[in-house]
User: What shape does this take?
Amino acid sequence: MAAVQETIDQVRLIDVDQYKYGFETVIEVDKAPKGLSEEIIRFISAKKQEPDWMLEWRLDAYRRWLTMEEPTWARVEYPKIDFNDLYYYAAPKSTAGPKSLEEVDPELLKVYEKLGIPLREQEILAGVETPRVAVDAVFDSVSVVTTFKKELQKAGVIFMSISEAIREHPELIKKYLGSVVPTSDNFYATLNAAVFTDGSFVFVPKGVRCPMELSTYFRINEKNTGQFERTLIIAEEGSYVSYLEGCTAPQRDENQLHAAVVELIALDDAEIKYSTVQNWYPGDAQGKGGIYNFVTKRGDCRGARSKISWTQVETGSAITWKYPSCILRGDDSRGEFYSIAVSNGYQQIDSGTKMIHLGKNTSSRIISKGISAGNSNNTYRGQVSINRRASNARNFTNCDSLLIGDQCGAHTVPYIDVKNASAQIEHEATTSKISEDQKFYVMQRGIPEEEAIALIVNGFVKDVIQQLPMEFAVEAQKLIGISLEGSVG
Amino acid sequence: MNMQTTSRLTAAETALVEAFGAQIGELPGNGAVIGTRDRLLDELKKAGLPTRRIEAWHYTDLKNLLRSVPDAALVSAIDPIAPLVEGSKVLSILQGAADAKAAVDGVEIALFKDRLADGSAVAGLTALDKDDAIGRINGSFVRDGYAITVPANAELEAPIELQALHAAGQVHTRFPVSFGAASRATIIERHRSVTEDAAFVSSISDITLEDGADITWIILQTQGAADTHLGQIRVQLGTDAKLRLFVINAGGKLVRQELRIDVVGEGAELTLRGVNLLGAESHTDVTLVLGHNVPNTNSTEIIRNVVFDRANGVFQGMIRVAPDAQKTDAKMSCNTLLLTDDGGFSAKPELEIFADDVVCGHGATVADIESSHLFYLMARGVPENKARAMLVNAFVAEIVEELEEEKLVEALEGVISAWLEKHA
Amino acid sequence: MLEIKNLHARIAEDGTEIIRGLNLTVKAGEIAAIMGPNGSGKSTLSYILSGRQDYEVTEGDILYNGESILELDPAERASKGIFLAFQYPLEIPGVATMQFLKVAMNEQRKARGEAELTTPDFIRRVKDAAEKLKIDQAMLRRPLNVGFSGGEKKRAEILQMALLEPKLCILDETDSGLDIDALKIVADGVNALKSPDRATIVITHYQRLLDYIVPDTVHVLYKGQIIRSGDKALALELEENGYADIIGEAA
Assistant: This one.
């Protein structure tokens, strides 16, 4: 069977009663001492066998971070994080660095099997063409394996962990790392620059259409460990790549911190499609535990006619603070943001996008669907900004919120800044509850209430689901249903 | 990090502090009022004028935009002008001073300075929240205005015009108005400068609609090209009360109009309409904070903006629906015609919703004139510049045409076309 | 009166070619029907004749009374007597119908060097024309086309045509969305304007309208070209056999 089908089947099999990925794996780990200091950063850098310039880059960010304050503008509340009470590096002992599948600890392979992530390089069945996915698996602080590397190499595509890339392709890293999200960008991004431990690196050369979907699967396993991954994707002139990202963590009572940075760069005529299914542990029904997901994702449409498209399905995390954005620098470039954010229990989501129009004839499209249930708060925060010189810019934003139950909140905070008369900006937002008429209709046909709601919600989010690669779409729909369980009183 | 920044005052902040010092002993008020004034000024001094770091002032960095404040010196007599709508009862406030002889049949009218002197105004002098710079400035400096009580069941045939005219200098006025149950009235709050020299104006209207009151309130701001106008209207809408609030900005250099509206009675209905005609180097900000606090209320808000020259416009519209406010129906839209590459418009329509059985929505557009409309008019032989002018005019005139009083519509249309003729 | 020579035109935004070498002559006094299947370029032709900027003429010419009109904007063409009755008349909120009619009539008069109408004269003209088309006065008090039913919009178009007294009338699918009574009223309005110095182009999908507005010539438009011309009989033939045969012949 194809990897994709296997994933879907796995998802189906796992007990859907609770958070399905809450298991913990006992694996021997190599940890840095608790706390954050220049020493720890040197430790991380040494573990990764990094060149000196990389260490300097990290230390520079760290010193800057020390002068910064945590942002408070988002509509999220959490107790102050003690950044010295965290582990910044944890790696399975058996894995000194990514290697071939044969060498990976079988315990780790089991973890990914249990998660439904195929790490075997399946063969194409004779005569049957099935889509394949190359996976970079990141476990706590390190990438444990990257599949299909050789085959990708043949096409000229570099897909490896960022730690490897720093060693093997320093010229590309020096040129592009931090060029979209500078180390000074914001509190969490600066912290990430100082302590990031791993992540994926993708380079698609001029004119190449990446032959398969690339994906990274993030897993936080260790207790009290922050995960700080860094992803860098470069699509050269005329190239295309589609990239998927998935995340889970064990069920724990303590909150865990995840502060990632993702940078995308699209040169002339290049296209990057970035999809996320974020299913970090959201905490229990009382709001205890869960991941703090503070992420900076930004794409730079640097070249003319380039295109970057973000699609996200956010069902996890106790707190999500995340605004995948596009800088539309190249003339005729295009940015897209498709989002489904589902919050239940005591989850808090403050997420959205920024579309910064700088070039001429740039266009952007934002479709955001928020669903709040339980005692959660779900905020869409988005900015559309049209620079004075960005003539003929176009934006369309549609932002709908659905409320299930009367203890939750749905909020919409768009910022629209226009400085060019030829711009055409259209923003619309609605908030409502599930239509009683629709629910009645569906239930009258014999479908129980909870399923009826899932069905209607899936209709509500259809526009976004359609943007996901097929194999993720099914998983995402399923996830949404699961996340809303228990939302009917 | 440099933590000293907050204690350094800008020129405008210093001028305000000094003006306050210079007026001590002159500003009306009993002990309690004076104590409140001192406290408000102290808060202002400590917090400074708001910057863009304060979310409520994100697009109007008052600290940066307000470069100076003119002297508070009083200027010689100003004569009242003809009311906007013929037959209106005019209550004039000239250079911030109300007319002791002013009277309207069937309505109780008191001078606000008397309310300050006897201390009965003290409760209303507070700031609404920690970012309420207008509340602080006005509370510190206000000298006069009218306190108006429209009795229950009163039906005022003629509009009341609050005619606030001023020359250069500082003017701080206040209008607490209470509309009794089932009363009906139209109020025109008109702010206008009679010279080209800079004035610094703050004005707060504090209005309460008792159950079933049905009120039209027009704010017409046509300040001079050098003026700063800080306006605020605080509204409480009672059960089944209806308010049509029209805000028209067609003047001023630095303008902020805050609309702080609380819907506190079931069945209440708010119709908010705004027209912002922005030209020259002006900066105009309309900020709405609307709370739907009880079940079964509805509101519609439509704001239309036309931007010329180097003008910048802002609309922030926050609709808050409280947890108990089921069946709230609130719809907001903000449409802008941006007709220049040298100016800009920023919109932040916000929804903050805690009740599930609601229908709320907002829309915002920024665009040039609809090309198909232009084509249609031109296809009938109307030359392009004329067709454009017609469409710009229609874009805003449409809003005031919703008013039922024909004379009022005509007068406001007159204001709009006169402004467009001058600026377009 | 109208001579279209080897016209090629495309959508300005994406370069899609819609009109591909179209030739057509319409004489004064003539009623010419243009028929064709969906997507053949009928509405595009009406927009290009009236000067809509969304289309670019890449080749050929349009001569109106012997002069090229390609460089004229829509208002200039209208003043020269070209009138387009829109398939979907636009709703323009805020623009009062009466004010619009007055501005349009006077601007055209001004462009032709004629004196402006006095207000009583203007009102009398509108009233007369409205009565003939059974248009209610209340409709005229509303903003332009706002809240008008489909039939009311079409009648309002013919009212404008009657008031503006154009020389070349282009009716774009004026019959769409009309019931039979409304269709008769509209057709009567059009027929009343028939005169030896006025030409009319009737763009339609169905022959039904042509029972009421009898054409002198009938032209079949397909893929941006006139593939067949004839008289009234051609329309009947199309009604009976559809477009397939003619398209087959041309291909």
